Amino acid sequence: MVKKTKNNEILVSAEGNDIPMMAEIETLPVDNATDDLTGELPVMPLRNLMIFPSIVMPVSVGRQPTLKLVNQAFQSKEPIIITTQKVSEVDSPKQKDLFPIAVIGKVLRVFEMPGGTITAILQATGPKVQLEEITSTRPFLKGKVSVIEEDMKDEKSDEFKTLIDTCKELSAKVIELSDEISPDTSFALKNLDNNEVLVNFISGNFPFPINEKYELLQTNNLKDRLYRLIQLLNKYIQLATLKQSIQMRTREELDRQQREYFLQQQIKNIQDELGNGQDDEIDELRKKGEKKRWKPEVKETFERELSKLERINPQSPDYNVQLTYLQTLLSLPWGVYTQDVIDIPNAKKILDKEHYGLEKVKERILEHLAVLKLKGDLKSPIICLYGPPGVGKTSLGRSIATALKRKYVRMSLAPVMGTWRTWFKRPEAHLNALRQLYSMGSTDVPVEQRQMARGENHLRPHLIHFNRCKNILLENFHIRQSPFWTIHLYLCNSGVVRHLDVQAHGHNNDGIDLEMSRNFLIENCKFDQGDDAVVIKSGRNQDAWRLNTPSENIVVRDCDILNGHTLLGIGSEISGGVRNIYMIRCKAPQNVHRLFFLKTNHRRGGFIENIYLEDIEAGDMLRTFEVDTEVLYQWKDLVPTYETRITRIDGIHVKNIHCQSADAIYELKGDARLPIRNVFVENVKVDTVRQFINRLSNVENFQANEVSATILLHKEAPSIDLDKLYKQKAE
Questions:
Q1: What pLDDT is recorded for position 12?
Q2: Which class for 454: exposed (0-12), middle (13-18), buried (19 or more C-beta within 10 A)?
């Protein structure tokens, strides 16, 4: 069916059986005629695609200038210049953004696909050309080219025949190993008799990086292009084989860990049934307590807490908390004292031996020791050492302990949050500052002019902030309390975060926020905070659109969240885009709002794609996962909408989730203007569901398999007002 749009654009409907098969379009070697190539021709830039001579390729058309070009070229049957962008994220490419070598082609068909997307069928019908200049940008790109002479003749030698056979064999193996290539491609390769077309078809359709494809396109000799293509095919096969090997080893390791876990659980359950495990543990604690020389009030506290431990089920999360508290009490040196050995010459000898330089610091320490020895009845003075990491503060303390023959203990002190808590309720000065900052960002006020560190604006700082850093390692430390986000990685590239213990129960106390950052591993961390544990963001509105830097390639594994809102949060600041996020083997044993929450609104724009959540164990919650495309919080009435951009959400994978109880299993609320696409849910089990199993709104291609609840209390109960709930918790 052919129809015209309001702009007189001619489209072919793709409904039913009206799509002509690609096989009907004849593919032959190009005709190197140079007629009609001397003037100005339309230029069609492609993203992440490169077309080779003689090849037919479908292309999705999204940009308005490109749509105008496609429709005009289809109606007029005129030739066009088909080239590729160097960087796919550029929306309005200039000549410097395009590869200089292109091909001459034409538009064979234009389809309107289900969902409203436009697809054009392109064929490279002319010779390979050099893009000399861009002569016009409106209504679309136009330019001038010069023809590149090529030698694409088949050779009759045995070497050439062997190369062709090798190429076919390697291509078949790549198709077998790759998830990105359709198996039907093998059939297409078998029916290509022309060697030039065969080489160009593989070069253009196989999943090579754009730079490597361009290297193939640059090669003007068929035999040389074939040699380079075989190299790339071999490289791909080696990488794919290595990936399979790694996945196999990882699966074997997971199987071993799961086996050990089940065996340990069985042993624990048997001990509980026999009554041995808990009683033996409590008796041991009581015996250790009897040996302690503590005061009567301390002993009374210990006995009371020990009795409480006896009443708690060992399977309860509170059991380990109570046990840890008692073990801490027992580990403290109650009534144990050491006799100081104050020997000034010996202390000076130890300090000089272990610390070169630092003369003023050592002199001050010796003065304190001398006064302590002279008076004889003074309590130990307090010495405060301050400075950046690595200057010797900790080692000086250890040296003092050695000189006095004291035990050395290192401990961290919790911060006082009184100052910050007055800001959590968002006083009027805070809201006014937010309005001002938001307006400046939305009206392109330069960043250096957004001076907010004045007056009483109450804009809270991040506790740990990395700005535009590379190769970051955060490892083995505790964090207690924070005025705002705890760890903020902004425009950072490459890093590892492991073995952190984060506890922060103020307002907006996220555990770690990755914003416009990429290539990070977060593992074996513990989060106990007042907001989300791991949050992926990519900037807000106009600023993020300008920076155009997505957060991507982030793995989160083997982490726990004890308290908080969300295990994995995405948004709501996602204007730069988020993709390739993978969370596996994490736990939320107590109470959280959600395991996974994707939130955005009509002001954000950006995109969300390729999100994976696997192997998660959880306690009680509101939703196992939720997607909400209209989350504005206080911004709804605080500031106006300066520009509307809908977020594209495509590719959410949730697998192997077990939760004890929840209000609902999942709820997805898409935007009718751009529905959520391609959501896959598999093996999600909730023991008790209080309200409903699921709710879907504006979602395309949703697939669910083995989603179940053991008990469903209220099948049609009303949903919770989450915004109201958040406000109550904040107050």
A1: 40
A2: exposed
